[in-house]
Request: fold
Amino acid sequence: MVRSPKILELNAFDAASGVRLEPDTENLIGRRQRTFGPSSMLFYKRPLHIVRAEGVWLIAADGTRYLDAYNNVPSVGHCHPKVVAAVAQQMGLLNTHSRYLNDGIYFYAERLLGTMPAELSNVVFTCTGSESVDLALRIARTLTGGDGVIVTQNAYHGNTSAVTEISPSSASTAPRNPDVFLVRAPDTFRGGTEDIGAAFAASVRSAIASMQARGVKFAAFIADSIFSSDGVFPGDPGFLAATAEAVRDAGGLYIADEVQPGFARTGEAMWGFARHGVVPDIVALGKPMGNGYPMGGVVIRPDLLAEFGSQNGYFNTFGGTPVAAAAGMAVLDAIASEGLQENAKTTGAYLLDGLKAVAAGAPVVGDVRGCGLYLGVELVRAGSEEPDPGAAERVVNAMREQRVLIGTAGLHGNILKIRPPLPFAREHADMLIDAFAGAVAQP
Reply:
């Protein structure tokens, strides 16, 4: 059986490939390997030396500008002036832990919660998405008394010890925790005419039954609603509602990981789960909430947090600092004042249509799908549905040579992953479409 590539192996630089590099690049790679060790990966056959960024652009040391269609963490654009100014100003006033009273933190918490369903009215701040998911798991396991967690087959949710255990696509080769049960992602390409929502809910119910048969008590189901690492499967709005019902029927908690689909990225809603009419029990947030400033959060029903708090304490020294709150508030300001949710919707639809037009004449493209500014392009062996990871690697590197940056994803590494910063405009979409057309036309 062929092992699926791990997340750090996708589109990774191979020092043994023999690719000719500039002397300065070779020197930097050598320094990196000496200081970071062998586990630190780089992207592309020819790694990039990036020195600054602005908006949707990454600028290399030689001045070359690369269109960034990969980085979702700088959600409102690289080095956004509002975020930079807010962080700098607050850093000059105060930045300390959250055991002191501070207006700014509460203003931000209230505004963030105002974007959520009314049932989710408490927030616990963290520093990263990994910490957020870790805390969400801890809460779910404490409140249900169970350990069983259901995740999709190639999910990635973070890198703490507990979260790595529920991230099958992580870099870990350790045996999977027997309390973690996998289900196939809702494959909208190979699913045929089946009801994707019903089929996915049935797979979750089957996993719960398998848990019970093995004496494992069910605690939680967790997914990012766009199934990004599995290959980008947004599906039709509403299809996850049946899964939420299955989870609640079995006494489990529904955890929505919004690090990937949240903060207006889908265009259809502020939150990925909202496309499906689902109100999760717990929501995990990560660094896009601060445009890359290290912050995260767990948004939760107050009754659940009260029950957890009656048994456990939680304190995160730099979760919810005044500087983090300033960064978060500036991100919400930018999304609202610059119409970034609507831009994600309209530009994303334009980009999707443009990629589909190219795909119609490219046998190597099996499917183009997406929602807002999160798109996936499935590359296959011509005339089949067989995944072609080699083609994906070739296309990604060909587009890099055309100064457009994307990534790869999926169980087989054959999905082109496109998730630019939210200010991505039609002119940028045209550049990406042209680069994609040129790349898929190459042998």
Notes: The chain has a mean pLDDT of 94. DSSP finds twelve helices and 15 strands in the chain. The CA atoms of residues 394 and 443 lie 9 Å apart. The domain at 7-76+340-441 is CATH 3.90.1150.10 (Aspartate Aminotransferase, domain 1).
